[in-house]
Amino acid sequence: MEFDLFVGIDWTGAQPARAVAVAACDRDGHVSPIWPPDRYWRRQAVADWIAAEIASGRRILAGFDFGFAMPWVDGVGYLDGRVPDVSDMFALWDLIDQASAGGEDDFAGAAVQDPRLFPSFWINGPTPAHWGDGSTKRRRVELVAAETGAGTPVSLFKLAAAAKQVGKASLAGMRTLKRLRAMAGEKLAVWPAEQPGPGQSVVMEIYPTLFRKQALGGVAKITGRSVMEVAVAHFDCTLSPALPEQFDDHIGDAIITAAGLSRLAGKPSAWDPAGLRPDIARREGWIFGVGA
Q1: Quick check: pTM over 0.90?
Q2: Taking each helix axis from N to C terminus, what angle separates 249-264 and 208-216, rounded to the nearest 10 degrees?
Q3: What DSSP character marks residue 129?
């Protein structure tokens, strides 16, 4: 499966969205930061940029650093059974978008307070009674990531750990993906819920820690050009002169993701990982590279 551009996107659920970062790797392995049209990237501007690249005829593989879906519990469904009519990832995106009450720039803060969602979250304080052993709060791919040493992704429902929480970013991201999917139409596939057809661009969930571990053997964030040069070289890539000597860890994660995707995309097992069943693909999604 060949692509013209491999894109890494570091994400945020904050409002305003000042921590979004984008980087791209071309077919020759040259990795560059993609600077925002204004001071910061807006979430909707990222969707617009990807849609424009696709419309221009380029085939894009874009990895987003947030959860594409919530855990699905067999016999119960999403959200402890409170939304029985929501049966797959795309219907879940519709629910999140509706529950977000029109939040600007795909902000999803209102969704957390929605009565269909709120009871499933760990907002703050000690472990809530509904959490149990946490097994119903994690997706299958998150369990496989921990079992295989890929990393330990945080549950989307755990908002108590402010520094590591991914819930609000994921909810906002679902709104952005819904928007992007509408703009790109049949030219875009959402992996693994949809298998890419000839010529289609692809969006997928990624986990930058996985690429940092592959490149450097550790989980430390990368914020310096000299270290990043070594990291991307692991994926047979080189850095653009546009990347400064020092940068924040959001740019760092976008850069390492773009480089990592450019090589991982050529690995057949990444597209058909161990543990990924069709029902999981449709309902929970998967982190690209886990189980490959």
Answers
A1: yes
A2: 80
A3: G
Alpha-carbon distance of 165 to 63, in angstroms, equals: 19
Rounded-to-integer distance, Cα 264 and Cα 198, Å: 19
What does the alpha-carbon distance between residue 189 and residue 201 come to, in Å, rounded to a whole number? 6
Distance CA 173, CA 190 (A): 13
**Maximal CA-CA distance, the chain:** 53
> Nearest to residue 87, comparing CAs of 101, 76, 98, 99?
76
CA 209 to chain centre: 12
| Cα separation values, 200 from 139, 185, 282, Å | 27, 10, 18
Mean pLDDT, rounded, for 110-117 = 94
Q: Are 173 and 180 in contact (CB under 8 A)?
A: no
Check: CB of residue 4 under 8 Å from CB of residue 26. yes
Q: Write the pLDDT tens digit of every residue in 148-171.
A: 888 788 888 888 765 667 889 999
HSE-up of residue 206 (Cα within 13 Å, Cβ side): 31
Side-chain half-sphere of 283: how many Cα atoms within 13 Å? Answer: 18
